[in-house]
Amino acid sequence: MSVLFGAHTQPVAAALTLPHAVIAAATQIGDPRRSVRLRRRLSSGRALRSVALGGSSTSGHQLSRTSPLLYHARVAEWLRTLSAAAAKEHQHANGGTPAIGPEYTEKCLDTLLVGAPDLVFVEFAQNLQDEDSSRALERLVRRLLQLPTSPAVVMVDLPTWKSMSNARDHQREMVPRLAAHYGLPYLSLQRLVGELDRSNTTSVHGWHPGAWLQCGNSTRACRAEAAPHPNKFGHQLIATAIVRLLERTWQAPLPSLTNGSGIPPPLMTRPSSRAFSSVFTPTGWRARSGASSLVPNYELDSAVCVGPDHLSSYVEHAHNWSFVREGTKLHPKPGYVATDGEENDLSLCYPVTSVCKDVDACVGRTVLVAIGFLKSYDARMGTARIWCTGGCSCEENSKMKYDGRHNQQNSVTYTNWLATKLSDLAFSNQKCPCSVHVKAVPRTRSPNSGAARDFRFKVTMMMLSHEGEMKWIDPWKTLWQNVGDSAPDLR
After folding, report:
1. For residue 318, what pLDDT is reported?
2. How far apart are CA 373 and CA 439, in angstroms?
3. How far apart are CA 455 and CA 426, in angstroms?
């Protein structure tokens, strides 16, 4: 029986007893070498670093990001109890980001890790929208496996409504396939619950979805939820299964050293290159691409992902813009805000040359850049015009505006992508290879509409993509809760 603890010393809930046959049916051990290395580090008294990567289920959804009830926090606390090092020396970070897919995490990985981790949980089964999402997940896994600490990587497979309806979910099926291909420990929550139900395992909770998901007591109420997020008991189930999975892994015989421990070639393929252009759609400016021949899905060059606390390093000038820190301690909302509606200019320097190794090949190349900005129901919110100077160009159009206001009663960070074309000036000795300018303008110039006050616009983050499509990070998908945090929450 695995006992899972909460805040350092006190149990957060009763321990769960899960039959060995159920655990075996819902998990796969994979290659145990990385997990055994993790166990040896624990035994030696070394302080561990762990991080959880995923979407809203990992982030917490209705639970706090720092809640000890989250599945990864429970496992991290259990590992503390096994270590000879002081519990306070261990670090665990919640790198889950609501409403995103692996495309975002792949590009912003460096900002989500706690140094070089020893253990990484990867949970994106609910966030795989299409084949590009699955490709990004594979590239993310490959980057994790090449970290200098050779971390143990555990794949966590949470269900979708489609899979729970016994319909085939092609993208979600890539999670166990990738785990098997790279020899990673793997857990399926849906399979776990199904096995418990079939084995008639006694549970005071019952096995109705509402018992282990954050939804009502009926199937109809559950399906009204956007995604099947685990509740407290669901997180406990996941954590218990992961603990038992690690225990099984540590007891498994080690493969022969002659089998090799290198990273296998990619399972998937991707287009060798893409031709981008900016197109205006009802939701704003988007990057459109055309595919070419296919190549192995090797990891891509690193991207630039800058949160608000680090934006100042990339600001060339901020004429009538100022850095502010609003919101609460739990959910801070820092960023640059325009302080004048008529004469203002925020110029952000994008290091576009960092994605180019061959200067000659990069002249004329299109690189995707992004600006994260706040959309709010605040009546003061205005719009912003965007243009580019220096060694990059973006299409000039009077419609190229970002609107900072919407009718929903929330404040959300939208991430809008812009296709910029590089010129030879980007590779000259000038200080900034590509300057993207943001000018806040009033929503209306009518003298009776409060034009003097409705120009407020807030920039919260910036991103620079390597070559690869980012279409799943739609403006309505990227939320405040973790995007732009200066660092993950540490426990």
Report:
1. 94
2. 12
3. 32
402 in Cβ contact with 284 (< 8 Å): yes
Q: What is the dihedral of CA 98, 104, 105, 107, to 10 degrees?
A: -160
- Residues pairing with 375 in the sheet: 412
CA dihedral 218, 222, 228, 233 (to 10 degrees): -40
Two tokens, residue 483: 């995007």
Report how far apart the first and last C-alpha atoms of the chain are (Å, whole number).
25
In this structure, how many other beta carbons lie within 10 angstroms of the beta carbon of residue 302?
Answer: 16
Backbone angles phi, psi at 249, to 5 degrees: -65, -40
Handedness of CA 348, 436, 410, 232 (dihedral sign): negative
Q: What gap in Å lies between CA 127 and CA 179, rounded to an integer? A: 16
Question: 3-state class of 113 per DSSP?
Answer: coil
**pLDDT value at position 76?**
94
Predicted confidence at residue 51, as pLDDT, reads 95
Q: Are 460 and 484 in contact (CB under 8 A)?
A: yes
Strand partners, 374: 413
Pick the closest to residue 275 from 356, 371, 367, 391 (CA basis): 367
Cβ(404)–Cβ(346) below 8 Å: no
Q: How far is residue 294's CA from residue 266's CA, in Å, rounded to a whole number? A: 12
Closest to 418 measured CA to CA, from 437, 390, 405, 431: 437
Q: What is the pLDDT of residue 172?
A: 74
Coil/strand/helix, residue 52: strand
Token digits of residue 11: 């149990």
Scan for tokens 């084949």, then name that residue: 131
Please state the pTM of the whole predicted model. Answer: 0.76
Spatial separation of the C-alpha atoms in residues 91 and 117, rounded to whole Å? 9
Helix or strand or coil: residue 358?
coil
At a CB cut-off of 8 Å and minimum separation 6, what does 400 contact? 280, 285, 385, 386, 387, 394
Q: For the chain, give the number of residues.
A: 491
Structure confidence at residue 372 (pLDDT): 85
User: Degrees (nearest 5) of the Cα angle 411, 105, 131?
Assistant: 105
d(CA 480, CA 412): 6
Tell me the mean pLDDT per 10 residues along the chain, length 491.
31 58 85 90 88 89 85 94 76 83 83 86 87 90 94 90 67 89 92 79 59 67 67 90 91 61 88 57 53 81 78 92 78 80 87 73 79 84 89 67 78 75 78 90 58 75 66 37 29 26
